[in-house]
């Protein structure tokens, strides 16, 4: 029970990777607050994790909205105490070739994937510095290294990695670790919508010859949130089944 007594916030947690990370932290003792823009789905996810609703709760939050995010984080602090762990997982895609991309498609992705991370992290960092303890894990993507049709998404995820490395250097002396995870193809509801012939091409490009699972990603996140990784900070761990060695 590596997270007994810890308060963890996971964004984009209504399903998939976010829900899997929240579940893993809960199973290891954390009080977990799941945030997502979809109130109904995030409350259902929290209920799937903890049917008693005591140590896993779901709250609606649009992380791209600074005022809303500030209010939600203050509510969490008042009800549960200082936030020890933050998982910045919320993200969206608006895939399109760049020459057809609109300003709206660009800004929507940057607002959620980058500004949302900034809004959430800014709300927790001072409390972590004061207590001289904190774990921040940011979800990047292998799209940061280049992917067709994802100039907006890849840019946002490359910025996540830069943010992670800079904040890690600033926060290390306060005993706060800041790391990123860059997954490739993970078997989530979003990916299951891809046509079968396209999915097969994805799998063939992976040396492990299969998709990753949200639970495997959650295991990496749990390591980075634990004291087992106390000397690991500023890193971007690629979880890709060998695709990006």
Helix-strand sequence: EHEHEHEHEHEHHHE
Strand order of the largest sheet: 3-2-1-4-5-6-7
Shape: globular
Largest beta-sheet characterization: 7 strands, parallel
Structural class: alpha/beta
Low-pLDDT stretches are none
- Fraction in beta strands: 15-25%
**How many β-strand runs?**
7
**Helix content bin:** 40-55%
Question: What is the radius of gyration?
Answer: 17 Å
* Average pLDDT over all residues: 96
Treating each run of at least 4 consecutive H or I residues as one helix, how many helices? 8
Straight-line N-to-C gap: 32 Å
Explain this structure.
- Strands 3-2-1-4-5-6-7 form a seven-stranded parallel beta sheet, sandwiched between helices.
- Helix 1 crosses helix 8, helix 3 packs parallel to helix 4 and helix 4 runs parallel beside helix 5.
- It is α/β, with parallel strands linked by helices and 245 residues long.
- The two termini are 32 Å apart.
- The model has no long low-confidence stretch (mean pLDDT 96).
- The chain contains eight helices and seven strands, in the order βαβαβαβαβαβαααβ.
